[in-house]
Amino acid sequence: MTAQEAVEHLSRLLKQTREQVPVPFTERDAERALAALLSTDNLWEAIRLSRVPLRALSTFWHRLIAEGLLEARDGALRLTANGQALAQALGVAPVREATCAHCEGRGVDWRTLPESVVERFMEICRHRPEAIQAYDQGFVTEATTLSRIAFAWHRGDLEGKTIIVLGDDDLMSIAAALTGAPARILAVDIDERLIQFINEVARREGLERLEAVRYDLREPLPSSWLRAFDTFMTDPTESFRGFKTTIERGLLALRGPGCAGYFGLTHVESSYEKWARIQRFLLDSGAVLTDLIDNFSAYVNWGYIESMRSWKWLPTHRLPERPWYYSALHRIELLRLPELDNTAVAGDIFSDEEAATT
Amino acid sequence: MTAQEAVEHLSRLLKQTREQVPVPFTERDAERALAALLSTDNLWEAIRLSRVPLRALSTFWHRLIAEGLLEARDGALRLTANGQALAQALGVAPVREATCAHCEGRGVDWRTLPESVVERFMEICRHRPEAIQAYDQGFVTEATTLSRIAFAWHRGDLEGKTIIVLGDDDLMSIAAALTGAPARILAVDIDERLIQFINEVARREGLERLEAVRYDLREPLPSSWLRAFDTFMTDPTESFRGFKTTIERGLLALRGPGCAGYFGLTHVESSYEKWARIQRFLLDSGAVLTDLIDNFSAYVNWGYIESMRSWKWLPTHRLPERPWYYSALHRIELLRLPELDNTAVAGDIFSDEEAATT
After folding, report:
1. Beta-carbon contacts of residue B236 (< 8 Å; ≥ 6 apart)
2. Which of A210, A229, B113, B272 can bridge A164 by disulfide, Cβ–Cβ 3.0-4.6 Å?
3. At what angle do helices B115-125 and B142-154 cross, to 10 degrees?
4. Distance in Å, alpha carbon of B47 to nearest chain A alpha carbon
5. Residue A287 phi/psi, 5° resolution?
6. Are B258 and A26 in contact (CB under 8 A)?
7. How far is B30 from chain A (nearest CA, A)?
């Protein structure tokens, strides 16, 4: 196969994929998907390495299978000889990992936290509520939560600060409180189980500055939380509408310029087009992006994986054995007071065309 | 001192600082500066930890000194008892470092590169041209250059790709060529010494895909370089005009959507206000920010430090013993073809009100 033939073939595959899904899927996305398939035959690892929304990725896989370029069997994906020839003619190379093994690529080391914080947090997590689909839950590994807290402490967003955690199945509020550094921590969540769990831990562990309150993000922020916090932390649902609503609540909760916000964003459910749209929304809201560390957050596999929206898209099925759903840690800082409405939002905030897990 | 008195005192200090410098300086900047002074008495370490443009930071220091809150002597900065009381009343805490010691906070590990690449690069760097002020030079540590290359390789921006390096005192083109992965590497620089050095290394080391050509970024990009590369790498001068010109040349050199660019940006010479302005410019140019890793790049101290613009701003003088000037690694990816002019730029592109090193 000549390079020219390969480019034309890829171009047809792209056209067909785009006709089938209302999600951006670029030549570079296809290249990343092929690079991942050259690097692993594990379905979940291929998703992680592709950095492409799963909705488009799975459609592309089905196209490859239909053309005899890919085989899907027993949860494994293998490029056929023709598939490998196509990748080679396109000049695609396997992914060459360079991730730091010590910090898992985060750049911050949770082992810098006091040992007692780590030990108590790990013990508390043994009894945490299970993730449920109704609230688009799925929590991160303990190392991830601890790393986020170490990061925020490093950046001066923890010690002496008032913190609001918007949706806290990751138990960031507990890890933050265990450090003893923040002045006050409020965790809010729609899930009564989490509210009870966090308040029970606060009582049992003597964490007097930690409190959890039930709150539905679709409702306006209560006036006592407006401009009342130094830092917000959240891990939003990724439909653009749900994401925007969550971040707006966070921005409205901040006192003003110089206050910081933390959130995650994935490739599985968000294209780079959506990332760009979000970046513009943040700038328009008076925030600057100060840090963006991809694959910072690793999610523990949740129990409802076989009923998630994207399960039926997969060309072969096997439960994942290791984390495969990752998100990029974003830190923003306010440069001016945002001009945002604090109004109720009706209806479904979990779904958009790139959503995969709800 | 009550918290209220401290806030009022800080507010006066901020007002005075802002009157003296035409550079944004926020309450949070002042807080960061005080946190740094609580963490170290080393002038250069205080700059690194403050993450504030040096022009504003040094003015703030002079204000603190004038009010008996800070002592500057023999290259050391020490908060007085009154200064410490102010910081305490404001609730400012020392910086709590959480940086991964193994990768120095980069998240990527240059030790994943083949050993021979590392060894040959280190050896080549022993004879590199010295940094000179006329071109705003100042190169990064070998570990930094190697980490950038490991990062780009990981992200699929190296292997089989054509790469242009715009200004290459960091010798990224050489490190990239040593991996043998890229299809072609063009290094361009205004400095004839670097062109000769890179071409001589390419000849001696048998790096046939590497070439260096003299080029002044103020000139339009030659037509044969337009839309000809997959990846650009640069470490721009940080005046907004110089930065924008450099990145525009890089974007114009890219083939189109899916191509990637790498660049650095500091706190020493760029406020978060300028960062936000740059982020908007990138989005407007059709790019999305995919990674932003602060303090990724550490600069080797250059020989002209005593004649740099900011030397006379410092309240006490001592040569730095370790790296203190860092930049944040940014990776962008093109989502659409940028609409940019390829025209000549006249005059000084090195200076703006936040510039510190030229």
Report:
1. B166, B167, B242, B243, B246, B247, B263, B264
2. A229
3. 140
4. 15
5. -105, 150
6. yes
7. 10
Angle CA A236–A241–A246, to nearest 5 = 35
Record: contact A106-B106, CB cut-off 8 A = no
Cα–Cα distance measured from residue B105 to residue A100, given in angstroms and rounded to the nearest whole number: 9
State CA A23 to chain mean position distance.
18
Task: Please tell me chain A's helix, strand, coil percentages from 3-state DSSP, rounded to the nearest 5.
Answer: 40, 15, 40
Taking each helix axis from N to C terminus, what angle separates B54-66 and B43-50, rounded to the nearest 10 degrees? 120
Nearby residues of B223 by Cβ (< 8 Å), 6 or more positions away = none
Domain A3-89 has CATH 3.10.129.10: no
Q: CA–CA separation, B50 vs B39, rounded Å?
A: 10
- CA distance linking residue A174 with residue B96, whole number of Å: 19
Interface contact A109-B91, CB threshold 8 A: no
In this structure, the number of other CB atoms found within 10 A of the CB of residue B99 comes to 18
B79 vs chain A: nearest CA distance in angstroms? Answer: 19
Smallest CA–CA distance from B179 into chain A, residue: A96
Q: Which residues of B177-187 are buried (b: 16+ CB within 10 A; e: fewer)?
A: bbbebbebbbb
| Residue of chain B with shortest Cα separation from A281 | B280
**Rounded Cα distance, A124 and A126, in Å:** 5
**Position A156: which residue type?**
G
The amino acid present at A196, given as its one-letter code, is Q
Question: In a mutagenesis test of the B interface, which of A18, A50, A100 is the best target, namely the one with the most B β-carbons within 10 Å?
Answer: A100
Cα diameter, chain B: 69
Contact A110, B101 (CB under 8 A): no
Considering the domain A110-334 in this protein, what is its CATH number?
3.40.50.150
CA distance A107 to A139: 21
Helix, strand, or coil (residue A332): strand
From first to last of its 358 residues, chain A has per-residue pLDDT tens of 899 999 999 999 999 999 999 888 999 999 999 999 999 999 999 999 999 999 999 999 999 999 999 999 998 999 999 999 999 999 999 999 999 999 999 999 999 999 999 999 999 999 999 888 888 788 999 999 999 999 999 999 999 999 999 999 999 999 999 999 999 999 999 999 999 999 999 999 999 999 999 999 999 999 999 999 999 999 999 899 999 999 999 999 999 999 999 999 999 999 999 999 999 999 999 999 999 999 999 999 888 888 888 888 999 999 999 999 999 999 999 999 998 999 998 877 777 888 887 6
DSSP code for B146: H
The residues spanned by each domain of chain B are 3-89, 110-334
Span B35-64, pLDDT tens digits? 999 999 999 999 999 999 999 999 999 999
Query: Distance from first CA to last CA of chain A, Å, rounded?
Result: 41
Q: Which residue of A has its CA nearest to B113?
A: A98
Distance of alpha carbon B261 from alpha carbon B292, whole angstroms? 12
- The 3 state secondary structure assigned to B80-123 is CHHHHHHHHHCCCCCCCCCECCCCCCCCECHHHCCHHHHHHHHH
Q: Are A197 and A130 in contact (CB under 8 A)?
A: no
Give residue A347's region: left, alpha or beta (phi > 0; psi -120 to 50). left
Residue B267: how many CA atoms within 13 Å on its side-chain side? 22
For range B330-358, the mean pLDDT: 87
Chain-chain contact of A91 with B160 (C-beta, under 8 angstroms): yes
Cα–Cα distance, A18 to B305 (Å, whole number): 55
DSSP β-bridge partners for residue A265 = A328
